[in-house]
Amino acid sequence: MTMKKKSKPKIIFPVTYRNVQKEVQERLVEVEMLIDDITKRLKLDHQSSFERSGGCKVCRGRGWIITWDSLSSGDFTEYGQCSESGCTEETRKVSGLDSSWDKYDGFRGTQNPITSSLKYHATVGSLNTTVDELNNKIVDLQNKGKIENGSEVVIMKGRKAPIGFQGRIFWISDSQWGTKVGLINDAGVTQWTYMSNVEKIYDQKSRILCKA
After folding, report:
1. Are residues 108 and 47 in the same domain?
2. Which domain holds residue 80?
3. Rounded to 5 degrees, what are φ and ψ at 46?
4. pTM score, whole prediction
5. H/E segment holding residue 190
């Protein structure tokens, strides 16, 4: 007869700064993936328009080509006029630049044709603002989530101290095995564990269900 493996008990924990930070990071990944998807579609559309307009494949619509390169910072790179006979200033005005952008464009002061376009700013501009806000939120949570004397924490893991125990940090000490902390709850009960086993509580009222 096969014995069923006992499942670990589930414990209700308060929401910690790490929980909130994880949620924000997941949202950040979603937004960045959306930006990447939109950028890829804009790049495809831009390239298709360039090719339909008969854009020059030799200079990529730039009017210049690289004739010699030192493969360094670009200080010793030499450029020349596009050698394609059908590539003129007039044809380049019609086609615009192709969708690529590299370091030589940067050396020459050429803007990225995708990220500098009105379509990009109309569709991705607000999302880039959201990315900045989320990154700032993550930094803020990391700073506020630092554990110090007086921090309200919960034991999330470890072997000796009870998982789920909540208390206030009253003692911190470094040892050769890591930083140790002492916790005390409202009833005066104390527990000792490593700082890596605890998380700072973000919201006492909110709860999440976790496996011990």
Report:
1. yes
2. 20-143
3. -65, -45
4. 0.81
5. strand 190-194
The count of other CB atoms within 10 Å of the CB of residue 83 is: 11
- SS3 for 106-156, per residue? HHHCCCCCCCCCHHHHHHHHHHHHHHHHHHHHHHHHHHHCCCCCCCEEEEC
Q: How many domains does the chain have?
A: 2
Contact 185, 165 (CB under 8 A): yes
Residue in this structure with the two tokens 């007869």, named with its chain if needed: 1
Higher pLDDT pick, 94 / 175? 94
pLDDT tops 90 at residue 52 = yes
In this structure, the answer to whether residues 58 and 110 fall within a common structural domain is yes
What are the tens digits of pLDDT across the range 69-101?
876 665 688 999 999 999 999 999 999 999 999
Burial class of residue 13, CB neighbours in 10 A (0-12, 13-18, 19+)? buried
What's the Cα-to-Cα distance from 186 to each of 27, 28, 152, rounded to whole Å? 36, 37, 11
Q: Are residues 87 and 108 in the same domain?
A: yes
d(CA 182, CA 172): 7
Residue 122 domain flag: yes
Residue type, 70: S
Nearest residue to 192 (alpha-carbon basis) of 149, 161, 162, 166: 161
Containing 17, the helix (H) or strand (E) segment is helix 17-52
